[in-house]
Amino acid sequence: MNNFILVPIGSFEQHGPHLPPNTDYLIAKKIAQTVSQIFKIQIGKGIKISISLEHDGFKNTMSISQEEFIAQVENILANFQNNIKFIFINAHGGNVGALNLIQELKGNKMLILNTFSLIEKDLITLRTSDIGGICHAGEFETSIMLYLFPEKVKMNHLKESDVKYVPSLDPNYKNKKLTNWKTINLSKSGVLGDPFHATSIKGKLWFNCLIKRIESSIEEFIT
């Protein structure tokens, strides 16, 4: 399918003591590779450093402004002919607002797939942590990484004191979500959630759920 391009979007930010700072990009890229094989769609140059202002204060965080991020996306769009349509696979929540702004301008030229939004209902079926256990570097992301990149996960670097439940940041939290927060004010380790509930089996099941939901969204977009 030569008139479609997949673009993985991640971030470079602290993910606690057990996950690499490029966790979001690794996940987005793996999703793009899997989807590329299903639909025979080319993978374009991704975005590895994005809007991570909420994680400022940690040495393993690199961030850009919303304006710089939007400029990067627009540059990607401009490098291809007008008949090309883009499928952005975004694995970092901090980019959602900026991507929505671009979507309003570009209309049906692009499909934005935010992994946390897509997986929200599937989290309930498998999670064993209480609400607050899936936020950042917690049960979900750690499980996905244990399945996809087990060699990059350092569970032995975690301590029980690293666990931090913040229910109002959890995707399955039903009331008003916390806004204008900084990770460093909530968790000194950078973990927001409970990675001790993570398993590679959950990671495999959640990853497969993601692929199925993305596959369905892309089929609709294409037709």
What attributes characterize this protein structure?
7 helices, Rossmann fold, 6 strands, globular, 4-stranded parallel β-sheet
**Strand arrangement, major sheet:** 2-1-3-4
Average pLDDT level:
95
Output the CATH homologous superfamily.
Creatininase
Roughly what percent helix? 40-55%
Low-confidence stretches: none
Domain count: 1
Brief characterization of the structure:
The strands form two sheets. The chain has a four-stranded parallel sheet, with helices on both faces. Strands 5-6 form a two-stranded antiparallel sheet. The protein has 223 residues and is an alpha/beta fold.
Structure description:
This protein has helices at residues 23-39, 66-78, 96-106, 115-126, 139-148, 183-186, 200-222; strands spanning 4-9, 42-43, 85-90, 110-114, 134-136, 192-193. The chain is an alpha/beta fold and 223 residues long. The strands form 2 sheets. A 4-stranded parallel sheet has the order 2-1-3-4, sandwiched between helices. The protein has a two-stranded antiparallel sheet with strand order 5-6. The longest helix has 23 residues, at 200-222. The radius of gyration is 17 Å and the shape is globular. The two termini are 12 Å apart. The mean pLDDT is 95.
